[in-house]
Design brief:
- The chain has helices at 20-45, 66-74, 82-104, 110-113, 131-161, 164-168, 226-248, 284-340; strands at residues 180-184, 190-194.
- It has 344 residues and is mainly alpha-helical.
């Protein structure tokens, strides 16, 4: 009878049959024991595994010297005097308080008034009396100015505290003679207000007569040659005639003949003119004669040009006819040469 092998002993090379359910159960058991082991290890040591640190990008990196420079700029300067700075600040605050008191019309002690940089009582001083009279008058004016400032401050406070509804309340019968009108203010905004509330327009300044702008004969000094000087003398002689004509027409006087010149005059110019420049005369008859001469010269030029054009065209036609005749002769000689060649 053969011996039965023990359950705990297996033959070498024996195949153990397993199924998927047993493998899944085994993997679950191993994972469970591993989790318990890691948990127990962490509680015993109290130190967790370090996390992986991500590398920062170049856009997230800070300048290593930025914080140091910022602290240096924000901190006090070595050359700065903290006591002097605080004293200057206190002096400025004290002076600002005094200026505010003067603006409100309050009285300022004399010992503080000496520290002011602006002398507010200078306009009220007298300049024609002696020193004693000046001192007495100045004291009187000083007290009067103080009273005025106090009364002004009280009036401002009363205006500030008064009820505007009482001032705005009007009798409805007054609105009949005060209709609504559309008004454009200084900012260009259209407003609908009462006619009595429309501000009056500012009076326009009277126009000032400036000789250099309003019809001047020669507003600016210039250096003139002898021809220009002669022209100025002629203008001065003719100005009286123009003034008489202007007075007859009741259009006012004072106009110069220089502004009524119709033709260009190059007598007072120092620039070089071109080749085609023609200096016309200022005399009307002489000018018309010169214009007629130029027109006649122009007509003669056009006539000669047309004659020359006709001769040129005739010469061109003769040349073309000569070319055609030469081409015919060449063609005849070429044909005779080809016909005389022997046939091979």
């Amino acid at each position: 009878m053969a011996a039965v092998p023990d359950k705990k002993t297996f033959d070498k090379g024996a195949v153990v049959k397993t199924d998927s359910a047993s493998l899944i159960a085994f993997a679950a058991a191993v994972a469970k024991h591993d989790e318990r082991f890691q948990h127990a290890k962490g509680t015993r040591s109290g130190i967790r595994a370090p996390r992986s640190v991500k590398k920062t990008s170049i856009w997230q990196r800070k300048n290593p010297g930025l914080a140091k420079r910022a602290s240096k700029h924000d901190g006090p300067s070595p050359n700065e005097d903290p006591d002097g700075e605080s004293a200057r600040k206190a002096a400025m605050e004290r002076k600002s308080k005094m200026y505010e008191m003067l603006k409100r019309g309050e009285d300022v002690p004399d010992r503080l008034r000496e520290e002011l940089l602006v002398e507010f009582e200078y306009k009220n001083r007298g300049h024609g009396s002696s020193d004693d009279d000046d001192s007495g008058s100045n004291d009187g004016r000083r007290y009067r100015s103080r009273d005025r400032r106090r009364s002004r401050s009280r009036s401002k406070e009363s205006d500030w505290d008064r009820d505007e509804s009482v001032a705005l309340s009007r009798d409805p019968r007054d609105y009949k003679n005060d209709p609504w009108v559309e008004h454009v203010d200084e900012f260009g905004r259209s407003r609908l207000v009462r006619q009595s509330e429309v501000p009056e327009p500012e009076p326009e300044p009277e126009p000032r007569y400036t000789p250099g702008i309003h019809n001047p004969a020669n507003p600016f000094p210039v250096f003139l040659n002898q021809d220009a000087v002669d022209k100025q003398e002629w203008i001065r002689d003719a100005t009286g005639e123009m003034r008489s004509i202007a007075s007859q027409r009741k259009s006012g006087g004072g106009y110069s003949l220089a502004n009524t010149t119709r033709h260009y005059n190059s007598a007072g110019e120092r620039r070089a003119h071109g080749v085609g420049f023609y200096a016309f005369s200022q005399d009307e008859d002489e000018r018309q004669r010169q214009m007629r001469e130029l027109i006649e010269m122009r007509s003669q030029t056009e006539t000669k040009r047309s004659q020359h054009r006709s001769l040129r065209d005739k010469r061109r036609e003769e040349i073309e006819a000569r070319k055609r005749l030469i081409q015919k002769k060449r063609l005849k000689s070429l044909v005779s040469t080809i016909s005389m060649e022997p046939k091979g």
